[in-house]
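STRUCTURE:
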């Protein structure tokens, strides 16, 4: 069977199937594995693209479906800082600390706080999907835009969700984080992806990079082969880890799908995208401990739209101290913000370069409030935009978190529409992020195994 794409969903699915003893070919169009779990090296620096923080659940997922060595490298990040006109707070980002802060700093009643946590923790996919996150907050914290900001801002950064998504998407993701806090991989993304590749190879998975799946070839309502770099490779089943609408309408094609699947699928909305600024600190320089993850905003109140602004008013900073990669005595800073594709598409090369430079300058201006001498310490600065994400992943409009909620139905129903065809990876907010994508990889791997058993 063939897995198209090596994001965390594709990698985990491929590994699950290889461990079941299946013959798996993993194809990745980029020259590195990892998808958005990416890293890159420039002028002696290593930058992590999406290693900012994930929930504790990743430990169990890695132990069970990858290796103990990977699970053991997962460590907590403890200094998470909110800095905005409504409040400045440092937290370990877990239920205990959030409860304490909601009661003490925000003056919320203990019963309300506890009921809110219970409510979120009790949510699951089969619950009511009509209540929005906005309505949920209004029920628990009416008129408290500061509390909503405290509870929602990190989730907006984490998956681009707004107050108008189904409340269960918030509840599931928030509760995942609240279980024990925010975690990272000691060793960095490069170490993790190397270890995953080793494990895949140990389990007999064949891996091809610079290999683009161009078309799924179908016969009698079933998958028959995949055209990879111009050559048809026969297979009984395919898992696509690529962007969902692209998988359905480009790789497969509506002509190969029943109309009652293709038509509603055309309505599925993509998630938004991101910009990032990567700052490398000159070798030999140090920076003081200003926190691990800072949510900085100058917006007077929280509004998800403000997280996509150009010029931006809200962003996060991840500070990578030498502890990120023990033995490598280097510092780096990565700032991330939401972004709309249309703000970056259609610019002339000069305008694009100018706007990227403005983003870098604006980021350094903000950073100076924490590190006044930062400009003299940075010897490498680069920006990524939705165009960058589109280019490196092939995701339409550079969508970085897959699709909005309705995408999950489309992803789950794909095998019913075309025999042997599966999708895994970012969809519907709850299946995005490192944990969501990896767990979805496991679920889909199990479904493929059942399908192949019967085939
Ligand atoms: C700026 C940013 C910051 C983030 N920060 C965090 C964070 O701190 N914590 C967290 O948990 N999550 C974070 N995320 C989200 C997280 O990285 C993603 O949700 C997750 O990695 C997506 O995994 P995926 O399985 O959906 O696949 P993706 O990572 O989207 O990868 C899909 C892969 O498929 C390949 N592909 C697509 N089409 C084809 C084709 N036709 N042929 C061959 N290959 C193909 C692509 O090249 C790509 O490698 C962040 C994302 C971004 C962009």
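SEQUENCE:
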């Amino acid at each position: 069977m063939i897995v198209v794409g090596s994001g965390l969903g594709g990698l985990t699915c491929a590994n699950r199937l290889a461990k079941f003893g299946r013959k798996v070919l993993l194809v990745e169009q980029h020259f590195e594995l990892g998808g958005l779990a990416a890293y890159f090296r420039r002028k002696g620096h290593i930058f992590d693209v999406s290693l900012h923080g994930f929930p504790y659940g990743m430990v169990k997922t890695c132990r069970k479906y990858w290796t103990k060595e990977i699970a053991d490298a997962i460590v907590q990040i403890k200094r998470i800082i909110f800095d905005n006109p409504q409040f400045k707070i440092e937290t370990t980002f877990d239920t205990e600390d959030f409860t304490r802060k909601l009661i003490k700093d925000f003056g919320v009643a203990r019963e309300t706080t506890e009921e809110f946590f219970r409510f979120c923790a009790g949510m699951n996919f089969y619950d009511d999907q009509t209540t929005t996150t906005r309505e949920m907050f209004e029920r628990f914290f009416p008129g408290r835009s500061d509390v909503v900001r405290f509870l929602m801002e990190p989730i907006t950064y984490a998956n681009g969700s707004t107050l108008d998504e189904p409340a269960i998407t918030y509840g599931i993701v928030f509760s995942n984080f609240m279980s024990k806090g925010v975690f990272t991989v000691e060793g960095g993304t490069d170490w993790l992806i190397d270890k995953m590749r080793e494990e895949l190879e140990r389990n007999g998975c064949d891996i091809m990079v610079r290999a683009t799946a161009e078309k799924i070839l179908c016969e009698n309502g079933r998958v028959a082969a995949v055209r990879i770099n111009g050559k048809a490779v026969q297979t009984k089943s395919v898992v696509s880890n690529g962007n969902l609408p692209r998988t359905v309408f480009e790789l497969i094609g509506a002509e190969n799908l029943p109309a009652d699947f293709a038509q509603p699928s055309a309505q599925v909305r993509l998630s938004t995208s991101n910009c990032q600024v990567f700052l490398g600190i000159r070798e030999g320089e140090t920076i003081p401990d200003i926190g691990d993850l800072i949510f900085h905003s100058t917006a007077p109140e929280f509004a998800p739209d403000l997280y996509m602004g150009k010029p931006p008013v809200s962003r996060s900073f991840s500070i990578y101290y030498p502890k990120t990669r023990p033995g490598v005595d280097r510092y780096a800073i990565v700032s991330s913000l939401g972004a709309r594709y249309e703000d970056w598409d259609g610019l002339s090369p000069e305008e694009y370069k100018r706007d990227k430079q403005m983003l870098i300058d604006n980021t350094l201006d903000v950073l100076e409030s924490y590190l006044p001498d930062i400009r003299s310490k940075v010897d490498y600065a680069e920006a990524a935009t939705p165009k960058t994400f589109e280019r490196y992943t092939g995701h339409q409009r550079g969508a970085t978190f897959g699709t909005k909620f309705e995408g999950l139905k489309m992803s789950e129903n794909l095998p019913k529409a075309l025999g042997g065809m599966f999708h895994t990876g970012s969809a519907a907010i709850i299946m995005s992020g490192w944990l969501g994508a990896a767990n979805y990889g496991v679920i889909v791997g199990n479904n493929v195994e059942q399908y192949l058993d019967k085939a």
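REMARK: Residues 2-37+189-269+399-454 form a domain with the FAD/NAD(P)-binding domain fold (CATH 3.50.50.60).
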